[in-house]
Amino acid sequence: MRSTSDYPPPVSLSPPSLVGLPEQEDVFAVEHLSRLCDGLAQQRPNNLRDLLNTLALIAPLLNAIPNVVFFIKDAQARYLLANLTLARRCGFKTVTPLLGKTSADVFPAQLGSGYTEQDLRVLRHGVLIQDQLEMHLYNGRETGWCLTQKLALYDAQGKIIGMAGISHDLQEARANHPAY
Fold this sequence. Notes:
The chain has helices at about 25-40, 50-55, 60-65, 85-90, 105, 110-125, and strands spanning about 70-75, 80, 130-135, 145-155, 160-170. It is of the alpha+beta class and about 180 residues long. It is globular, with a radius of gyration of 15 Å.
């Protein structure tokens, strides 16, 4: 078993200062994250550590969107970076306990094993997953539908070194908001 020092240092994603975003800004932020994933696919960092350091600059944005999960995984499908939304949906109060684990380690068996198999296809074969309709965990660990994007991350030599993913909830936020 590898020690935690074998992993790149986690990126600290501090909780958002906003309670919620107006719907218009939320749509903009989701589109921005989708463009970020596209940009990651074209970047060629020397290693995952360099990529994680770059992503630290947008960490507040990653945590400010309550209906989106975002993550970076290493070549063994272990979380290296995740937003607070994903950590909370996995039952954690912070991101740290999630790091170094696979989806199969943190999600219920009926969901987690399928996510990990999908991750390994991306990591081994460079499969691009776009707009995959999937059952996910929402807040309170209730199930709900999401659209998922996953893509391989390549180093400067063209070798797959990890993957990035984003899942966007399909259920409207206002359906659960106490103001409605």
